[in-house]
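User: Predict the structure for this protein chain, please.
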Amino acid sequence: MPETISDTAAPLPGAPAVLRSSELPGGVIARILPTVSLTFVCYLTIGIPLAILPMHVHLQLGYGTVLAGLVISTQYVATVLSRPRVGRMVDVLGPKRIAVLGLIACAASGALTFAAAFFNSFALVSFVILLLGRLLLGIGESMVGTGATMWSLGRAGSAHIAKVISWNGVATFTALALGAPLGVLLQQHLGFASAGLVIVAVSLAAMALALRLRGIPVSPSRHLPFAHIFWSVAPHGTVLALGGIGFGVLATFITLYFASVGWGGAALTLTIYGACFVVTRLLFVGLITRLGGFPVAIVSLFIEIFGLLLLGFARVPSAAFVAAALIGAGFSLVFPSLAVEAVRHIPIENRGTALGAYNAFIDLSLFLTGPVAGAIISHAGYSAAFLTSAAGVFLAFCLTITLASRHHTPPAD
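Assistant: Here is the predicted structure, written as C-alpha cells:
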C-alpha cells in the first residue's frame, strides 16, 4: 500500500486510535466536515443513477420491471455482504485506506456505467456491465460509509460518536436527495453516459481530498473475534432493522400509493420526509449525549409508529404529508441513538467491525422491505402494508424498552 494513504503514524503501544482534539483546528464540526464530505460524495454517486437506471434498463435495453429492479437491488446485496468484512479491514488497515479504496470502487462503477451506455445494441452485455458496476458501488458504499465514519470519529474523539454518526447521516440523505434529480437532468440534457462520467469525476475529486487529509493511527491492540462483536450488536441491529421498515416502505411505495388513489404531490411527501429527517438530526442529536441512546430511541420509534398509523388510515393527501413528517422525524435519531449503545462497550480498535455489523442490519432491512411489502400490497393493499410496517416498528419499540431495562438493571451477585 503506498505511503500516501497510510493511516499509521508510528503509534505508541496501546495508544488509542484517535487524534487529540488539540491536534486539529476548530470545533468538532470543523474537524469532521472533511471526512463527512467523503460520505456525501459516496452517496451522491449512489443517488445519481438511482432514478435513471431502472428507466434505462426497462426502456432502452427492453427488459422487464423485475430486472429493472434487480439492477438497483444488486448494490444492496453487495453492501450487505461486504459490511462485516469491510469493518474488520477498517480496524486493521485504518479508515483512510479503506475510504480511499471505496472511492476508487465508486469511480470504477461510474466508468462501467459510462461504458454500458455504448452497448445498448447488445442489451445483455450492457446489462451485465451495469450489474458489475452496481456490485462495485455496493462495495464502495461499505468502504466509504464505514471508513469515513470511523475516520470522523478518530478526528473528533469517542465522546462525540453521536454527533459523528448524525452528521454522516445528514450527508447521506442530502446527497441522495440531490443526486436523484441531478441524474435525471444529466440524462435529459447530456445522455445516460454523462451520469457515469460525473460519478467518476466526483469520486476522483473526493479521493484527491482524502489523500491530502491526515490519517489516524491504528491501534495495535488485540482484535476481538467477529462472532463476538456481531452478537454484541445484534440486539441493537435488530431494533434498527425493524425501525427501518417505515422508511423502506415509504421510500419504495409512496409514489405508487399516491397514483393508486389519484393524489398528486408524491414527490413532496419524500421531500417532507427528508427535510424532517435532516432537521431533527441537526437540532436534537445532542439529546443522545444528555439523555442516553435508549430514551431517545424509544421516543423516536413511538413517533415513527404514529406516523405509519396515520399513513395507513390517511384519506386525504395532507394526512400523508403529516405522516411523512412524523416518520422522518421519528426515524432520524433511531440509527445514531442505538449505535451509541451498540458500541458503548466495544473497544475502540474494534468499533469499525462493530459499526460494519450494525450497518448490515439496516442494509438487510431495506433490501427485504421492498419485496415483502410488495407481496402484502398485492394481496391486501397499501394501507395493510403501512399498518404492518407500524406493527414491525412497534416490535422494535418493545425490544428497545427491554434492552433499556436490561441496561439499567444491576448484574446479579
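The chain has 16 helices and no strands.
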